[in-house]
Amino acid sequence: MKVDGKDMRTIWLEPDGWSVGIIDQTALPHQFTTVRLSSVQDVARAIATMQVRGAPLIGATAAYGVALALRADASDEALERACTTLAATRPSAVNLKWALDEMVAVVRNRPREERLAAAYRRAAEICDEDVAINQAIGRHGANLIGAIAANRAGHPAQVLTHCNAGWLATVDFGTALAPIYVAHDRGAAVHVWVDETRPRNQGAALTAWELGQHGVPHTVIADNTGGHLMQHGMVDMVLVGADRVTADGDVCNKIGTYLKALAAKDNGVPFYVGLPSPTIDFSLSDGAAEIPIEQRTADEVATVTGRTVDGRVEKVRIVPEGSTVANYGFDVTPARLVSGLITERGVIEPRRDALAAAFAERAQAAR
Amino acid sequence: MKVDGKDMRTIWLEPDGWSVGIIDQTALPHQFTTVRLSSVQDVARAIATMQVRGAPLIGATAAYGVALALRADASDEALERACTTLAATRPSAVNLKWALDEMVAVVRNRPREERLAAAYRRAAEICDEDVAINQAIGRHGANLIGAIAANRAGHPAQVLTHCNAGWLATVDFGTALAPIYVAHDRGAAVHVWVDETRPRNQGAALTAWELGQHGVPHTVIADNTGGHLMQHGMVDMVLVGADRVTADGDVCNKIGTYLKALAAKDNGVPFYVGLPSPTIDFSLSDGAAEIPIEQRTADEVATVTGRTVDGRVEKVRIVPEGSTVANYGFDVTPARLVSGLITERGVIEPRRDALAAAFAERAQAAR
Description:
CATH architecture of the largest domain in chain A: 3-Layer(aba) Sandwich
Largest sheet of chain A: 7 strands, mixed
CATH class of the largest domain in chain A: Alpha Beta
Oligomer: homodimer
Strand content of chain A: 15-25%
Strand order of the largest sheet of chain A: 8-7-6-9-12-18-19
């Protein structure tokens, strides 16, 4: 996607051919800074401090982390050490684990002198595969948006999104936002309602920033607003990402997604989820009962970070001292509220048989 | 209610017998400051800058504003000027208009020398009437909470609230929070989930502060959280205030209320609204269609005000420059999602016949 009019990915090989560039996402939206990673320690720090975030991007960055580790020391011990270090940065990230396994599989049975090139090659492939998956999600979803736009007689299709499942969370295009980018690039008129997404404000900070950079019209709203908009016919489609989807189509995503799904149902607004198929966990069925919901630090709710009028970035506390705070990171939207799952293989109904048919190889492996 | 262990109201006559004391609510929760109002200009400024807010408290403060105006000049012209000034401070506040009409009715047909005493008397009555109404709401609602607590075998009754309809919004006790205070003071175990209530954070700033001061256990959560809590059986009742209720029982309240009502319905959690009966507008029926929703300044969504680690109060921007922002202040919860309206005359079903029967004199006057 574009930044300041130039095409960019969220991660790239630097011109030196070995070090890795990323965008420091903790500084967004107030500052656009890139960071050069030249060691596995650099990569571990970038993941742990959330300079990179989003499951696909974490996986891709970790893959390059293994390559950087092998550049310093191509031994089995160094490989193992690198994987242990990287796996500990975000222990619950499924993609991180997957990317490390991929790298080990490619490297382990090779002679030392071949390992480095193989690692860089596989890391680049992991990035390109992510982009290809997201482009496919984008094409399938853009057809839905295009159909709405075609019926709107010049008015833009109104899409509401929650959190950030955009290109910043992936290598490029994003998952939930890929259909929006593809539709926009095809010339469809699209306007996006961006939930600010408390407590971490990834909507206001990241989604608004990346849509703005790419030139997609959008409006930031408080998370409380979507129901009112849907009641008044101001939303044509809700489109969100997913952290995990069960074999029955229940969707675990950023806290607050379930509330938007309820409002969509109550107002006849279609509710779609954009996701790469590895997000589907065929070992789970009832999301609300089976998916443990991470409780995060109270500080995320009790404080807000932003930029002062004179340009300093400050953290301010909004909750009285002495008040208890709870911070649940995710919630589960039952499949009955989901209109469709937009995957790289098309739009799938959120039902066990439909998902198993579309991803037979994975559904069978989970038995 | 209590502040630092002492009983207080939100507005009081100072020991000098004529000037009026208020709490500066714009400084909460970071600072507890009282302000002395000694002229109608002081009162107009306090209302306009939201040092006092909440319909009942605005009305009570405006009433004292008329008294202070008459203290300087008891003429008809001064009375009219004062009402014009005060009415302009918050043009859409129904209670403000009502309180001014009350004051004019009491003063106008009296000789000048009697006006001042009559005005102070009526202002004090308006305050006491508000307290009496809220205590009645509190008693009726506390019975509901008590019944839940009795079934919880020692675990607290879990009540979720949105925004601030507490004693800070009234002269004392509050509307939605009155049942909680009464239940707590009766010895029932109650715990309150406090929605932070973006964009102005009245939940985190005001509700959490007043519950904390009175010693009611509570936990502040992001507005996105309630659905997850209800899905997991962690909420026994939702209890909110109202800005306006239609003759058919539709409830206009702070933006985001509707989303919580949907989650309550989806999870079989009772959803109650605490309100003084003047909030019912018998001239309206379909709330979503008929109640215009105020759009407020983008700044409220784009920025957050809080306290820095070193104690300064700062405003920080969280939305990228160049992103559009929308700020709808209220939404409408359809009567079908409301379990009951807790009024000073008891818990009323949100239906036209039930409301008309309970408030026959007002329902008939609206025909």
